[in-house]
Amino acid sequence: MTDLKQEAQAVAQMRDSESQKDNVFIEKKGTAGDQNDMYRMGKQQELRRNFRFMSIFSYSMVLMATWETVLTAPTSGGQYHWVSEFAPKKYQKFLSYIVGWLCVLGWQTGIASIAYLAGGQIQGLVILNSGTYVPERWHGSLLVIAVATFAILFNTVLARKLPLIEGIVLALHIFGFFAVFITM
User: Fold this and answer.
1) Domain residue ranges of the chain, discontinuous segments joined by +
2) What DSSP character marks residue 76?
3) pLDDT for 75 beyond 90
4) 87 band by pLDDT with thresholds 50, 70 and 90
5) How far is Cα 15 from Cα 10, in angstroms, rounded to an integer?
6) Distance CA 39, CA 184 (A)
7) Mapping DSSP to helix (H, G, I), strand (E, B) and coil, where does residue 143 land?
8) In angstroms, what CA-CA distances link 143 with 3, 34, 116, 123, 173?
9) CA-based nearest residue to 17, from 49, 41, 39
């Protein structure tokens, strides 16, 4: 216990001598625990850290209150409906139109980014497990196209089989969890 106190005092003294040389701690100091953690990791404080437990808790309560607003009138319209609900009467149609198209663009970029990440993971696994594979840029592009095509076909052609497939994936997930947990 004495060693820990001595180490903490030594870190505090070094931190104090460093803060005289560098104004980062003075401008953006956060809590004493934050300063000790940052100094121990050899990092300098870059952002202000002024959130405490109560402020984060209060923020979460406000956020959950907004969810209650959504539950008062459930709709399948999504974001564009709520923009129409809360926007001024003059701008309701225009803002709903813009938000609707932004949602469509978000879905499309989501599909592209997920396909890119999955293709990169597949290529990474091939690189990891095959000593003879030489990765090329176009391999990644083809994997992205293949993953996107598979996802589209899976969600359109195999739509009737989704409950069965989801059940199988759930069973695999549970067995996989226990396989990893037991081997640890």
Assistant:
1) 2-41, 87-183
2) S
3) no
4) confident
5) 8
6) 33
7) helix
8) 55, 44, 8, 8, 24
9) 39
Q: Which two tokens stand for residue 114?
A: 């997920």
What is the pTM for the complete model shown?
A: 0.53
Mean pLDDT of the region 136-157: 94
Write the single-letter amino acid at 184: M
Distance CA 68, CA 74 (A): 10
| Chain mean pLDDT for the chain | 83
Reference 111, options 156, 79, 144, 157; nearest CA is: 144
Tokens of 43: 């990092």
**Rounded CA gap, 164 and 81, in Å?**
33
What's residue 21's pLDDT?
47
Q: Distance between alpha carbon 37 and the CA centroid of its chain, in Å?
A: 24
Higher pLDDT, 116 or 52: 116
